[in-house]
Amino acid sequence: MKDLLKQARLDQKLSTRKLAELSKIDQALISKFENGFRIPTKKQVQTLAQILKIDLKKLLVAWYKVKLDKNFDLNSFAIQAITEILQEKGIEVGNDKKENQITEILDELEILKQKLTSLK
């Protein structure tokens, strides 16, 4: 996220001082965001995305990644817990979706095989 913020600021040809003025976020905080020493609030992320013309979805995903990485010990138990929470909310997890699709295809192939066998 820090690189995304800094690159967008440079692309817009803004100094940290000017960005601070436009965003009403302290210049020292902006510098800390860009150097990875602080994490902006969600409201600050939204403000910066708008001013720096960064896709909000892209910046929020980067923000959540940083927050999760800094605030949680992402060991196998934590990842399993997150996976289960997503499943409970009906959100497909990447690998599970692919595995489910493969299982469905294999099941369909088995049914077709049985039908062909019964025709003989």
From TrEMBL:
Transmembrane segments: none annotated. Residues 5-59 form the HTH cro/C1-type domain. GO terms for molecular function: DNA binding. This is HTH cro/C1-type domain-containing protein. It comes from Flavobacterium tibetense.
